[in-house]
Amino acid sequence: MPNEETAPMLHASGLTKRYGRRTALSEVDLSVPAGRVVGLVGPNGAGKSTLLHLACGLLEPTSGSLRILGSRPAASAAHLARVGFVAQDTPVYPSFSVADHLRLGSRLNPSWDQELAERRIAQVGLNPDQKAGRLSGGQRAQLALTIAAAKRPELLIFDEPAAALDPLARQGFLVNLMEFVTELGAGAVLSSHLLGDIERVCDHLVVLSDARIQVAGEVRDLLARHYRLDAPPGGLDPLPAGVEVVRMEQGSALVRADAPPRVPGRVEPVTLEELVLAYMSRADAPAAAVGTGTAGGRR
């Protein structure tokens, strides 16, 4: 893995993208250290695909800046070769055989690793002579993953690549994804609605909702700084200073704090699913519904 002194894997400052009157991303500030496996989660329309397409150089920002591996996305052919991308529909050429795809990859990518590509194709049981149009969804995903990894990139980007796969095919895809990350010493960004997948493979989390970053950081650190508070009526109002309310329900709150808050009732750790859903709900809630230091609103 790249060391901590290298450039961030992804660094955004004031990143904004609009499609006409619709804002897909608004003033996004985000920095992800090198070598992380990032889970990018959020509801449909949150801006996840837009962010990934910006990172690959397929879109240009309306304003703000974005740096991938220290440079503007797709700044040159050499930089483009450092990033592997698997789109949501895992696109392949239906009339091309599996072997044709590998030959095309070798012609287009100067750092192409034919041995890696052939070894991985054999491991997942793909017939080199079979047309891609006759492959199952899981097989197409494995072919697209192999092509992206055989470039030997420093960063792999996946836009919901396993969303349409059955559980067995999805499990195989995730196993191979992590094997590639380990073998290449690469970082990765995985966009997914499936929180179980994120929990299995990701060490860094980004929650994107309402076109903005709601929370981001190391999964372990985020879980260690969030708590679920269950208390009798009135037990959560007011809360101790320095406690940020993320989500409030009747007699219960999910909060962020540097240490377990001293309140009446129970203070429990949260799951990754609880944390993600709380921040997504907060993005949809009125501003007065959340706050810091009080259960009722902003101090």
TrEMBL record:
Residues 10-235 form the ABC transporter domain. SMART domains: AAA. This is ABC transporter ATP-binding protein. SUPFAM superfamilies: P-loop containing nucleoside triphosphate hydrolases. The keyword Phosphoprotein does not apply. PANTHER family: ABC TRANSPORTER, ATP-BINDING PROTEIN. Pfam families: ABC_tran. Belongs to the ABC transporter superfamily. It comes from the Bacteria. The keyword Transmembrane does not apply. GO terms for molecular function: ATP binding. Keywords: ATP-binding, Nucleotide-binding, Transport. The lineage of its organism: Bacteria, Bacillati, Actinomycetota, Actinomycetes, Streptosporangiales. It comes from Actinomadura sediminis.
